[in-house]
């Protein structure tokens, strides 16, 4: 049984502490859930499951809160999954697998994240003489020496692969240029009067060159221009059985999910994990890289996106045609779902039968990819 994406929506992406600073994650997510249902002409009681990715909330099943806030009946289950940056795309892949298995016909899937409202993290004391110790992130491997922070890991990857700082900056400048020139018509659900990605700007090579390194030295350093900013956002798609399409009002041509893949890789080089996932998804879909009309590749770091474009063998001209995360921001658990929403809207502009790819990396050495056609 084939799974299709019937509708796809997202909020704008707002940098941490920006327009969405006071909005709880479930309140962001309910807006995009309601939007995809409205686009498809479905009542909330037609939904059979809700699956959302989230990385920072600290428990509590925000997918369930979002589903209830969106008016989905109490009888409908909801699942929150955490595979860090891959979580939003993994939620969509899981929904597709459930539909293909015949376990459900209509599932809302996506991701939500709020750096602004994320809980303050502390390690609990082990004994009466200790005090709580604050921490920024959990460990992603059992080996401290193979669990790098992401920014130093990106700088190390740039040095290893020979991506100079100037090339990374040029990539970031181009991401902003494409975002300013691109179209988000019909894609963004306005929240808090924000109807466009707030971080996008006319970044210039001269401005990027003046920035101090965040990690790395000299020729291969990474800076705030070449690292996606922490951000808040939500995104959702409606995944359904192809045989049920007659029950929907179609806001565009449905995307047929041809294949998905989740792969593990070297935790020290997490930015390379999507390469294997993309290759596996393309092979399962019976497609070659040259068959792709468009691709949405995560830009958590310029070097990571550049390495994936090269490693997968993509034509750079089809990648992130309306800009990427360097021009938007990186709302961890929502980022993969945003890629899928972007892919849906980009493929609407293509000929029937056109094929697209979405791929993303995550801390700990994880990669996920989706291949679909329209």
TrEMBL record:
Keyword annotations: Acyltransferase, Transferase
Thiolase N-terminal domain residues: 4-242
Pfam families assigned to the protein according to its UniProt record, in alphabetical order: Thiolase_C, Thiolase_N
Alphabetical list of PROSITE patterns matching this protein: THIOLASE_2 (PS00737)
Occurrences of domain Thiolase C-terminal (ranges): 259-371
Entry's Gene Ontology molecular function annotations: acetyl-CoA C-acyltransferase activity
Cross-referenced InterPro entries: Thiolase (IPR002155), Thiolase-like (IPR016039), Thiolase_C (IPR020617), Thiolase_CS (IPR020613), Thiolase_N (IPR020616)
Protein family (similarity comment): Belongs to the thiolase-like superfamily. Thiolase family.
Entry-linked PANTHER family: ACETYL-COA ACETYLTRANSFERASE, CYTOSOLIC, ACETYL-COA C-ACYLTRANSFERASE
Protein name: Acetyl-CoA acetyltransferase
